[in-house]
Amino acid sequence: MSTNELVVHRFEGPQMSFLNENGRRDMTDVENDRGASFTRSYWFAGCCIGLALAGFFDGILLHQILQWHSFLSSLDGAIFQDLRFRILTDGLFHAVMYAIGAVGLWLLWRTREQFDSLDSGRRFASTLFIGFGAWHLLDAVLNHWILGLHHIKENDANWLAWDLAFFTLGLVCVAIGLFLHYRKPRDGGGTRLHTV
Questions:
Q1: What is the average pLDDT value for the chain, to the nearest integer?
Q2: CA-to-CA distance for 149 and 63, rounded, in angstroms?
Q3: The whole model's pTM is what?
Q4: Would the CA dihedral through 4, 195, 106, 121 be positive or negative?
Q5: What is the number of alpha carbons within 13 Å of residue 65 lying toward its C-beta?
Q6: Which whole number is the average pLDDT over 99-109?
């Protein structure tokens, strides 16, 4: 078997199974209503990419363009107000988001044979929304409220309202992702991602 053939398809009755390069069955996610299974790697790929996109949305729009906050802007001390230090910490934040996105793309490449599975498009979109929303929830709860590293709009008297709006956006995105994940495909089949 070629080393490029990371995943192969095998049909066992109505359920599709995926084998890794060792011929063993890969870990699978919950089956959809049409019988197609997707590996957990496929699921984590979308979540990682969605989380990275959310981090870039936060960092580029809120940190750089609107300049509402930086990663450690709520902390006291001269070092935390130093512009060079704030740019450094935002850069490290973006580097972490790049690494998470790279992991997602690597996992997506490893599971590319599943693009042609029934409803792969809907399933992948659901993981993107879940990952995008998960970042907003994690950032709001951990960084804004528990650690107090920053708030969405630092110098606004209603900063809590902005934090809650950010948190609500996360809830909405996760809810959309779960809806797409569990929604039954329409008659005639679901969407597929296609390789070129």
A1: 83
A2: 13
A3: 0.76
A4: negative
A5: 7
A6: 97
72 pLDDT above the threshold of 70: yes
Q: Show the CA angle centred on residue 188, arms to residues 39 and 14, nearest 5°.
A: 45
The stretch 94-101 carries a mean pLDDT of 98
Tokens of 4: 């490029």
- Helices 120-138 and 40-56 pack at an angle, to 10 degrees, of 50
108, 114 in Cβ contact below 8 A? no
- Enter the tokens of residue 178: 């779960």
Cα separations in angstroms, 65 against 13, 33, 52, 94, 163 = 54, 43, 18, 15, 18
Give the residue carrying structure tokens 């790049």. 98
Q: For tokens 């512009």, name the residue.
A: 83
User: 57 with 166: CB under 8 angstroms?
Assistant: no
167 has pLDDT over 50: yes
